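Hello again,

I reread your note about wanting to compare the complex against the isolated chains. To keep things tidy I'm splitting this into two emails, and this first one only covers the full assembly. Below are the input lines as submitted, including protein chains and any nucleic acid or small-molecule components. They are followed by the predicted structure of everything together. The single-chain runs will come separately.
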Amino acid sequence: MLRYTVNRILLMIPTLLGVAVLIFFMLRVVPGDIVEVKLRGDGGSVTQETIEAERKRLGLDKPWHEQFVGWMVGVATLDLGISMWTERPVVEEMALRLELSLEVAILATIFAVLIAVPLGTLAALFRDTWIDYLMRIMTIGGISIPSFWFGMIIMLSLLALFNWLPPITFTSIYEDPIANLTQLIWPALAVGYRYCAVAARMIRSSLLEVLNEDYIRTARAKGVFERLVISRHALRNALLPAITVIGLEFTFLIGGLVVTEQVFNLNGIGQLFVQSVARNDFTLIQGMVMLIAGFYVLVNLGIDLLYAVFDPRIRYE
Amino acid sequence: MRPQTASACLLDVADLHVHFETSRGIVRAVEGLSFQVRRGEVVAIVGESGSGKSVSALAVMRLLPRLTGRTRGRILFDGKSLLDLDDEAMRQIRGRDISMIFQEPMTSLNPLLTVGLQITEPLTIHLGMSDEAARARAVELLQLVGIPDAESRLDQYPHQFSGGMRQRVMIAIGLACNPKLIIADEPTTALDVTIQAQILELMKELSRKLDIALIVITHNLGVVARYADRVIVMYAARMVEEGAAEAVFHRPRHPYSMGLLHSVPRLDHPRGARLETIEGLVPNLANAPPGCRFGPRCPFRIEACAEEPELLPTDTGAQARCHRVAEIAEGRITWAGSGVAGTAQTARDGGALLSVRHLTKHFPVRGRFGSSGGRVVRAVEDVSFDIAPGETLGLVGESGCGKTTVGRLILRLEQPTGGEISFAGADMLTASAAELQAIRRKIQVIFQDPYSSLNPRMTVGQIVGEPLHVYKLSPDAKAAQARVAELLSQVGLRPELGERYPHQLSGGQRQRVGIARALALEPSFIVCDEAVSALDVSIQGQIINLLEDLQRRLGLAYLFIAHDLAVVRHISMRVVVMYFGRVMEVADRDAIYADALHPYTKVLLDAAPVPDPTIEKARAPRLIQGELPSHAAPPTGCVFNTRCPMASAECRATVPPLEEKRPGHFAACIKV
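Full-complex prediction:
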């Protein structure tokens, strides 16, 4: 198990290096560069010399292989460079937003799991009754309604009902938990709805499958209390596939909340990503891609290890 | 021992009906079933799939699906009417007074919970034992069912147990609360014959020792003969005959019971020329025929059979549901079956069609990151045999012995590690791609599972016609169609079935489709990999007869891979016995069954139950101990030495060569 974990962590290195190479070349084949955007963006006239000087200052005039070597050395030494736009270290730029994005993702996960597990279980147990139908309507809604639209509805409702809007400046949870939560609980709800719907449907269908298994029949034939049949025998088996879905949704929430962040006026990773792409801020884009790829790999490792904890048949040697 | 009270009747089922509401209409799975079980008695319910035997058992336990299942009738257990109890009262009976053992030990235990928890669960729930007391009792139970090292095995998970060991765990769970009745639903069907014998012996002994009544549900007549005091024969949702085991086996009075006993190949009878099978198919219960259910397949049918017969008492003290019971009892009608005389000839002049020499297959054991570290599983080790044109070679052994791998190596679905395979004089291992393709045309295969080996998205006609298309054997679509129709009628299917999809056919029909597909290329050799083991008894007989007829007509040679000794004996001319990757014994069929030399062959033959209660009850249990060795730590010397009753130090030292002990009779054992 330990050896497996170490092996998996070591395997992350080639994966991430591959990502680093790919993103470098993909950015270089896309037309346009940051200097044009920066200096000519608002329509002012700038001389060619100024542009060249700026390119030289940012190191964009060097041949691509020199830039590539620089980037790879940076990746290897965990130095992601300096944002070409704000001129602050990429890591610092990302850290600012990561706290917020991570918190929203964690809040949404807690919210989703807390609701999805009982909801999916109830729907499976009362299959084809009004409880199940209600759950299916709610979850199909969650999957089909875009999170940002649901977010806007939340905002408008808060305004209409309480004449109140959540704060728009980010307060760290360590400084003022209440202020922090009053701001972030709403976006977490908005994205958690979809998340919860996906997980609940997954739990419902896998529980229905598990309830048909022979060992459930065995448990009932032993005269085990029905409550215990569900909680001890069925639910543990049914939650295994849900772990995968929850993990993948979680990684999506780290980098994928572009519009929802806009709706709630949050300065998160999604926003930063869009900005950096719009500005052709190569170093920042590269850093963001590495961050998100890293999260994916880590969360996947976490899922696999969780599987081993839950399922004794999986013993990584 | 419990006192024998006046009401010795423990379970009294009267006029039980079970209906299922399905999209195809109401399926009447059990109709008017009545039977009693006395305390300490062993009752067997026999029948083919769909006869309602398992459903009746689940109805007694009230474990049928709530939404679709409807149960009517009366079930009295120990004075309580089970169908009138509320859910909580019924739960208290399940596992406490009645427990159930299921067929599939692989899936009947929860993979995520320790074995200990699964055994102690009924103890803590029903008897209110403390965790320590329950654990102590669980250790006791595991020892009782013969699991060594019980204390430490309690903390293991089901996947760390072999199939036989899991079934022992299931029995331990069943016994936990000292129930009055155990219902065992096909308890040994998924197990190898030597393990089956161990489990059967264990259950029989325990039920006698602890005075537990046992209902055994099975399709295996040998198991019934070994176990049962009384037998209930079910057919198409109804009980057709019920009586003492001796009566039903020796003097069956219902045509279906007669047919069933005739359609199985038997180790205790001289080998007949042809199995006298029951023709036709089991009726569809959603749309059952009026009158006698067995009428459409019954050779004794008369006009009166349009009326449903009552259960009539017979001269044997049993009861049978047939209008002609009296005539059968007087011996005026006897089972003739559909047999046509004619024996498959042992045609062993001339050279070998297929010749296998020193065939070896090692599978590397892969770690998670690809490196094998040099460890291998020796699946097949030094196997040699010949098959002559028109001959059937039986290849028999328990699961994991390498018999299926041998078949796959011959079909070149796997690449051998070493050895030679030649077909009609051509070396298959060095053949070029074109040569190999020509050889492959002549070698075909029939697989075990008729449910998963046919593509569900193709019609029967497309499946059978595909090889013609691949090898461009038919000039145009019309010729191909005619050939498909010819092939279907050759295997006894109406050509119209070509339009259907596999799911619309029964198991026996699907296996016929598999045979028709194999015949399409006019092969001279067919590998039959457990070709009849997934089929019901009466259907199995039909398919065996079909294979024999085709062999006679077309001069086919078969490699018949199977675990059922009686079937292999019936169909084969020569038999190869394999164990743990190696050949133990090779001989002509009669020599091997009448006069086995190798201790493993003897053990196998001894373990197989025969459908004759007199023989079975007289048989002294001579059990083979232990289980298959692990491929991670293979035995040194003779692979069988870990379980062999004759093993000595020499056996552990060297691998015995396969030697000709008598003319044409080879065995790999230094003791004979």
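For quick reference: Residues 76 and 193 of chain A are 39 Å apart (CA to CA).

B.
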